[in-house]
Inverse folding.
């Protein structure tokens, strides 16, 4: 098995989830993720190893997605910060482990409102930011910011828990 096949196997799911966070469409996410790895294979000799390969792949994926949207004349999601989508991947990795999922649910339970409910509606209810805004009588932007803050709080507390376990 080649090194690039290993990279593909290790990071395809992360790239797919990153795209899913940006475009909210499984088919487009799959298409962009596949195209990302085609481009990465073509440019692998340019990867200098100075940054994480996943971050490099996310950059290729994001640019591929933006090109796709321009080509199809689709509106770009207003997710302008890749940190938002990267944190989705981090959270998904925690959810996959049953024990860590339980810890995450405990942390979520401890969050104050509206963070707890916005996060639940977005992740478990799979509602759009627009619909979440309507439920709360707020804007789509408010829902995005509230969701992002909730994710940030959860990730920080998960990190604190992991550091506490190591000591």
């Amino acid at each position: 098995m080649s090194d690039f096949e290993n990279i593909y196997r290790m990071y395809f799911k992360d790239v797919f989830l990153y795209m899913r966070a940006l475009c909210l469409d499984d088919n487009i996410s799959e298409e962009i993720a596949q195209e990302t790895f085609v481009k990465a294979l073509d440019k692998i000799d340019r990867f200098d190893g100075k940054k994480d390969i996943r971050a490099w792949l996310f950059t290729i994926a994001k640019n591929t997605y933006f090109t796709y949207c321009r080509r199809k004349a689709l509106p770009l999601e207003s997710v302008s910060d890749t940190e938002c989508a990267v944190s989705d991947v981090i959270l998904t990795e925690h959810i996959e482990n049953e024990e860590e999922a339980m810890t995450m649910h405990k942390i979520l339970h401890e969050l104050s409102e509206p963070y707890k409910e916005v996060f639940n509606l977005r992740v478990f209810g799979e509602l759009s930011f627009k619909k979440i805004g309507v439920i709360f009588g707020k804007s789509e932007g408010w829902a995005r910011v509230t969701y992002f803050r909730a994710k940030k709080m959860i990730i920080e507390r998960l990190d604190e828990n992991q550091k506490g376990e190591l000591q």
Q: What stands out?
A: Residues 78-83 have pLDDT under 50 and may be disordered.
